[in-house]
Amino acid sequence: MTVLVTGSAGFIGFHLSSRLLERGTAVLGFDNMNPYYDPALKRARLKQLQATAERTGTSFQLIEADLDNRAAVEKVFAAHKPEKVVNLAAQAGVRYSIENPAAYIQSNLVGFGHILEGCRHHGIEHLVYASSSSVYGGNTNLPFSEHQGVDHPVSL
Ligand SMILES: NC(=O)c1ccc[n+]([C@@H]2O[C@H](COP(=O)([O-])OP(=O)(O)OC[C@H]3O[C@@H](n4cnc5c(N)ncnc54)[C@H](O)[C@@H]3O)[C@@H](O)[C@H]2O)c1
Q1: pLDDT, tens digit, for every residue of 14-35?
Q2: pLDDT of 107-140, one tens digit each?
Q3: Which atom of ligand 1 is nearest to the CA of 34?
Q4: What DSSP letter does each residue of 77-140 carry, written as one string?
């Protein structure tokens, strides 16, 4: 089985990919390696993922592309035929969403739309994606739940 993990060079995507490789699941990574924080850290994570794949006899391959590139996302689904998808590629950060909303619109709205279309047209068994706790705004009921209201988000 191959799992497509977008944002595989990022904080959560790297740790998830490591866990999947450790249990013998092939990972197809997708990341644009953007400089929102030091890309050298992202490159170091990719090196570690390659080493883990070699040690565990599975495979890790990175597609370096942008989620907002519809053709690139479509090609990943058509050529690699992943069974499951975890979408963790996103422009993260709450304050920066107010400063530079365009980055969020392209990655988190347009890009996520391309992921949804890829899943729809290629019969993906399961899609998991990360949102942001800021969708719950000032809600203080913990733990957060998908059933709580999201009418007053604090980020774009
Ligand atoms: N880290 C947290 O505490 C936390 C908490 C709540 C929600 N989240 C959500 O989880 C997700 C992942 O967070 P993270 O902390 O791993 O962030 P991160 O910034 O470390 O990782 C995101 C990765 O996605 C890549 N990326 C960004 N835009 C892209 C695009 N358009 N195309 C391809 N790749 C792109 C980046 O290069 C980066 O490697 C985000 O949606 C974030 O909002 C994170």
Answers
A1: 999 999 999 999 999 999 999 9
A2: 999 999 999 999 999 999 999 999 888 888 878 8
A3: 37
A4: HHHH--SEEEE------SHHHHH-HHHHIIIIIIIHHHHHHHHHHTT-SEEEE---GGGGTT--
Q: Is 29 in the pocket of ligand 1 (CB under 6 A)?
A: no
Which residues have C-beta within 8 Å of that of residue 11, sequence separation ≥ 6?
Answer: none
Q: Report the distance separating Cα 5 and Cα 7, nearest Å.
A: 6
Ligand 1 and 86: CB distance under 6 A: no
Q: How many CB atoms lie within 10 A of CB 52?
A: 18
Instruction: Give the CATH number of domain 2-136.
Output: 3.40.50.720
Reduced 3-state DSSP string for 38-81: CHHHHHHHHHHHHHHHHHHCCCEEEEECCCCCHHHHHHHHHHHC
133 Cβ closer than 6 Å to some ligand 1 atom = yes
Pocket of ligand 1 contains residue 107 by CB under 6 Å: yes
Q: What angle do CA 79, 82, 88 make, to 5 degrees?
A: 110
User: What is the 8-class DSSP label of residue 15?
Assistant: H
